[in-house]
Write a structure and sequence with these properties.
Shape: elongated
Strand order of the largest sheet: 3-4-5-2-1-6
CATH topology of the largest domain: Elongation Factor Tu (Ef-tu), domain 3
Structural class: mainly beta
Order of helices and strands: EEHEEEHEHHEEEEEE
Radius of gyration: 22 Å
Helix content: 10-25%
Largest sheet: 6 strands, antiparallel
CATH class of the largest domain: Mainly Beta
Length: 199
């Protein structure tokens, strides 16, 4: 699983953009939020702490609920409509999770994957030499599923030697990407025939 991480994250803390506070909801301090996270149940659980971009202001979730696919949050200390309207537009961030815990849960941030060398896995379906370098991860793309964009080490060329394909898109699923080693800087691929140009 890939965790969302955004380019405008504050530098001083490892914080991830979670939501932007929207309009007041009712008279008791509840607000709607525009979410930027793929795990709202975790980020908006009672007691969860969110921060402003500079990390100086804390917003503690008192309770949360969904209504017609929208999240409605009540933060501690925002107790009336005036206070909730004053918070409108505030962007909130959450702390990044511990890398070791993420590793155990098999979760990754896109920035962790970009730059990794892509090698063929042991016992790959193509029957090719394990460890053969396919290329390098240059992007992580979210469409219907997460895709790794691999820049090929050996681009496909036409009869005149002109490069016709220099990258491949690989679905980021366990069957196709069995191993990831951040320390060693590589991941392994077990692609079916036709997925990687030239293989």
């Amino acid at each position: 699983m890939v965790r969302e991480m955004h380019a405008d994250d504050p530098q001083q803390l490892e914080l991830l953009r979670v939501c932007r506070i929207g309009r007041a909801q009712g008279l008791k301090g509840e607000v709607t939020v525009q979410i930027f996270t793929d795990e709202p149940e975790y980020r908006f659980a009672p007691g969860a702490v969110l921060y402003t971009k500079d990390g100086e202001e804390e917003y503690v979730v008192e309770n949360s609920r969904t209504f017609k696919n929208r999240w409605i949050i009540k933060f501690e200390g925002i107790d009336d409509r005036d206070a909730s309207e004053a918070a409108n537009g505030t962007v909130l961030y959450g702390e990044a999770d511990d890398p070791e815990e993420m590793l155990e849960a098999d979760e990754w941030y896109p920035k962790d994957l970009i730059g990794l060398e892509a090698r063929l896995a042991e016992g790959n379906a193509l029957g090719l030499e394990p460890g053969t370098v396919i290329g390098k991860v240059v992007d992580v793309i979210e469409v219907a599923q997460w895709l790794l964009k691999i820049r090929l080490a050996d681009p496909v060329r036409d009869a005149d030697g002109v490069v016709v394909e220099n990258s491949a898109l690989v679905p980021f699923v366990d069957e196709l990407v069995p191993d990831i080693d951040l320390e060693e800087g590589y991941l392994t691929l077990n692609p079916p025939g036709g997925l990687i140009p030239g293989l």
